[in-house]
Design goal:
The complex is a heterodimer of chains A (60) and B (326). Chain A has one helix at 3-28; strands at residues 31-33, 37-38, 45-46. With 60 residues, chain A is an alpha+beta fold. The radius of gyration of chain B is 19 Å and the shape is globular. Classes of the chains: A alpha+beta (60), B alpha/beta (326).
């Protein structure tokens, strides 16, 4: 192996270690939130408001 | 940025949420490294209930309360009575568009002096609850939480500033019970109860008695003692009847005898206002004066038959009764 090839391999291996560590650090230090931001579109379906006057069947 | 994991610090679960995934509550989602709530302004249920149904017995008795919920819950109680909405995914559900301003209009339209965040758990639609309660305070409408109290201290304190009353579940007195039955833990709930009471809001406590799981006299005594010592003897305690639902269909409903026994134990431990619920009882839903034992409020189910309170006091001995009466 020539010195040039050895240095190239060393740089590649070093880069892989740095990238891998960066990914692990990002996973280990997540962005923290207490409050969530409102999403304006409901992922389910929407229906009209009805039966408000009627007592709920749900507990509570 | 898109691949960032987020951590939701709202409740003690402290969910680590990968991009495109939701927390345990199903409604708080990581979108592009930002925590989003998908249920803000989208309740799945809005109804006018009697306030006694929450149950709240010491807060504006015999008034109507506009009650709302979104889907989702941060606990997964095997006995959940409302599991069809609490354990539903938002994408599989139907909701109405109802921002806080519209809720204010509805309380006015249906002449409700208060608004309840209930049925599932208002903790998981925190931002919606917070903004609505803040707006309600400005409009003179009272806010009531019906919750399991599974929330971290800081957001809880912020929310309590705009809340007038709460019914908080104390489901059992051991971590083991909370872990096995509810997928939660006990300590955060106890802390939430103490913080709520210390904040000055009106607090009532509910304990659902499940046969074979938390119906032993010593378990009930321990719970009553804890309430007395940490929240005060004046704190109303409701023992609710369990019905077999969701993942606990193999257990029988709680008997009236067990509920009566629980009530007697709690009274003997020094609690002044102990009630039984989800069942008709001759005296178990009445309020009596803790000093002279006079009957103050006679109830049958959610109906108030007689209310003898005078300005929140016993008409016979003048004892001031804990609560918000007008």
């Amino acid at each position: 192996m020539t010195r040039r090839k050895f240095i190239q391999k060393l740089i590649k291996a070093g880069s892989a270690v740095i990238v891998g560590t960066w990914c692990l650090v990002r996973k280990a230090t997540p962005r923290k939130f207490v409050r969530a931001i409102r999403l304006k579109k409901y992922p389910g379906s929407l229906r009209p408001l009805r039966d408000v006057r009627k007592q709920s069947k749900w507990s509570g | 940025m898109q691949e960032l994991t987020v951590q939701c610090e709202l409740c003690p679960k402290m969910c680590l949420i990968e991009p495109g995934q939701s927390g345990e509550c199903r409604v708080r989602i990581n979108i592009d490294g930002v925590l989003r709530t998908v249920v803000y302004g989208f309740p799945c249920s809005i109804h006018v209930d009697p306030i006694e149904k929450k149950p709240l017995f010491h807060f504006l008795p015999s008034t109507k309360i506009l009650s709302m919920a979104t889907v989702g819950c941060n606990l997964h109680c095997k006995n959940c009575q409302n599991w069809e909405i609490s354990q539903a995914n938002p994408e599989d559900s139907r909701a109405v568009f109802c921002p806080p301003e519209k809720l204010m209009e509805l309380t006015k339209q249906y002449q409700c002096p208060s608004l309840a965040y209930t049925y599932t758990d208002p903790i998981i639609f925190y931002e919606y609850t917070y903004d609505t309660a803040k707006l309600a305070r400005d409009k003179g409408i009272r806010s009531v939480l019906v919750t399991a109290g599974y929330i971290n201290a800081e957001p809880w304190k912020q929310l309590l500033k705009y809340v007038d009353a709460a019914n908080i579940d104390l489901k059992g007195m051991s971590d083991d019970f909370y872990i096995r039955v509810c997928s939660g833990t006990l300590k955060p709930v106890q802390e939430a109860l103490v913080l709520a009471k210390a904040s000055g809001i009106m607090v009532e406590v509910t304990n659902l008695i499940i046969p074979t799981l938390n119906d032993k006299p010593e378990q009930i005594r321990e719970l009553a003692r804890w309430v007395k010592v940490n929240l005060g003897g004046e704190t109303p305690l409701h023992f609710s009847r369990f019905f077999p639902r969701y993942k606990m269909r193999h257990l029988p409903p709680t008997s009236l005898k067990t509920l009566d026994m629980a009530r007697e134990i709690a009274i003997s431990e020094g609690l002044h206002f102990v009630y039984i619920g989800n069942i008709l009882s001759k005296t178990g839903q009445n309020t009596y004066c803790p000093v002279c034992s006079s009957l103050l409020i006679e109830r049958s189910g959610y109906t108030i038959l007689q209310n003898w309170l005078k300005e929140g006091c016993c008409p016979d001995c003048g004892k001031e009764i804990y609560g918000v009466w007008k």
